[in-house]
Amino acid sequence: MYAQNGTASPYSYFGIGDLRATGTVENQMMGGIGVFADSIHVNLQNPAAYAKLGVQVGDDFGVTVYTAGISRKEFLLTSAEEEQRTAITNLDYLALAFSVGKGFGMGFGIMPYTSVGYNLIDARDTGTQPLTNIFTGEGGLNRVYYTLGYEIIKNVSVGATVNYNFGTLESQRLQQIEDVQFGTFDRRSSRVNGFDFNYALNYTPTFKNNHVLTASLRVNTQGNLVSQNDRTIGSFSVATGGNIEEINVDLDAQNLRNTEFKIPTITTIGLGYGKERKWFLGAEYSFQGLSAFENPFLGVDNIVYNDASTYALGGFIIPESGSFTSYFKRVTYRAGLRWEKTGMLVNDVDINNFGITFGLGLPMGRNFSNINLGFELGRRGTTRANLVEESYFKINLGLSLNDLWFQKRKIN
Fold first, then answer.
1. In a domain, 345, yes or no
2. Taking a C-beta distance cutoff of 8 angstroms, is the pair 181, 134 a contact?
3. What predicted TM-score, i.e. pTM, was given to this entire model?
4. Position 148 pLDDT exceeds 60
5. pLDDT at 333 over 70
6. Total domain count for the chain?
7. Which residues contact 404 (CB under 8 A, 6 or more apart)?
8. Which side of the chain, N or C, has fewer Cβ within a 10 Å radius?
């Protein structure tokens, strides 16, 4: 995960980078909703869903799920003057979850949390000689987590996840003036780590004909991150690219060597309705008080953070889950859409994100394992105010492999 470049978005220049999708392929293809829970899939967004894990086999109850996901995202970046295309392939998550008894599940795994990856050129005429600034950045934060979910009373489940976030954020600005032999550079690096917690409450009453109402409340608590920072400035040769002079900035004197910043709490409410192993439709609303976010070390002056919110709608349909005559009747067909107000106000313009998702869950034989294939079409940003509009097409591939562990050996 350290080796991969997780994004090519110019908007990863701000904050701590692009926030990555935290759900499995199954959830992402339903607009990113995390309200749905079943007995054979991992729900990385909703810790209370782990209480649903498990199937009855004879006198034993349990299931172990190994899940992994990769994605390829193709970008079309459009400014007022030109277009560019690029693509990124990523490992999105590795996770293991298992039932340790009816109504009790746990799991752990690793995934990217944010990604930084941009290369921006700002060329302008100062009235005397052309001036060029080149901004580049890479890195991001990864996350390891541990989750518990438990059904405290019938139809009511609670869960909690502890996340440890860690990684390095690196940025560089090169400045050069036409026909001047030397340019200047400003390089910054932040080694970041810290914890946050995700709590969830699910209510899933069952009505006649196996119809299920699902209500969910999730709170991802404020992430308290600490950053150990370094900064170097100096000059370089435009002809060779080699450094001429390099100075380590005394950040201790500026009280910027070790800084803290907080990722504000995210609250999500969800509601859904469906029929077990047949169909489901759900909706979610998320809110984050992002206006409280700041990172004093970065010193970006053309952005204001406002409160962020997300609306998501999605669902699935399985024509006939137990069909013996048609494979495609056992396939899960998923679709959804998402509208996100990111909270970023860049050059006095709101940066919003809209996406449409759809995909297939392909059964593997007659067991509970499946391959999940998903697609997403979306657009973020705008070409107004010298900004970049980002159109993207994302392909997701996920594996959900199921097995029965912890079974008692019996001799008749």
1. no
2. no
3. 0.92
4. yes
5. yes
6. 1
7. 55, 57, 60, 62, 63, 64
8. C
